[in-house]
C-alpha cells in the first residue's frame, strides 16, 4: 500500500494552514482617527495638568500624612501650673507625625514664620524659607525658645526668644497642636 499521496496531501494542507496563520499575523493595523477624535471629545480628555513644584509636592504629601494620622500626632506642650516656666516644648517621636506652623497672625492664611515637623523634607535646609526656622523639636533650636503668652481664640500666642535671651517676634500656633498643662 502506497501512502505517498496521503503524506503529500497532509503536508500540503499543513503548509497552507501555516501560510494562512502568517497572513493573519501580518495584517496592517489601521487606526480610525475620526473615531478616536470623537471619543476624546466625548470623554472631554484634557491635557495633563502641570506638575507640582517641589514645595507644593512636599506640602501635599506631608499634610496628607498628618491628616491620615488623625489624633495620633505629637503635640507641643507648655507647663503653666505649679510654677511652670511657660516655655513651649515639643519632643519628637519618629513614629508619630507632627507638623505645626507658627503664623504672623492668629490666622492660618497669614504668613508662616516657624515650623515644627517630623519630616526631613520640611526641616532640612528650611525649604519654605521660614524667617524663624524649621525644626524637628525644641531641643534642636540651639538655645532659642518659644514662650507662651496667652490663648487667643483658636490660637496660642507665643514669643520667639533668640539664643541671647532677647525677645523677638510674636507668633501664633493653632491651639489644637499645643497642650496647656
Q: Any overview of this molecule?
A:
The protein folds into 2 domains: 4-43; 54-180, no CATH class. The chain contains 4 helices and 9 strands. The chain has helices at 4-25, 33-43, 54-69, 120-123, and strands at residues 76-78, 88-89, 99-103, 112-117, 134-135, 145-152, 155-161, 167-174, 178-180. Helix 4 (120-123) links the parallel strand 4 (112-117) and strand 5. The chain is rod-shaped, with a radius of gyration of 34 Å. The termini are far apart.
Question: How would you sum up this structure in a few lines?
Answer:
The chain is an alpha+beta fold and 181 residues long.
What does the secondary structure layout of this molecule look like, with pairings?
Elements: H1 4-25, H2 33-43, H3 54-69, E1 76-78, E2 88-89, E3 99-103, E4 112-117, H4 120-123, E5 134-135, E6 145-152, E7 155-161, E8 167-174, E9 178-180
Parallel strand pairs: 1-9, 4-5
Antiparallel strand pairs: 1-2, 3-4, 3-8, 6-7, 7-8
Bin the strand percentage. Answer: 15-25%
The total of beta strands comes to: 9
Give the integer mean of the pLDDT values: 82
Q: Provide a count of the helices.
A: 4
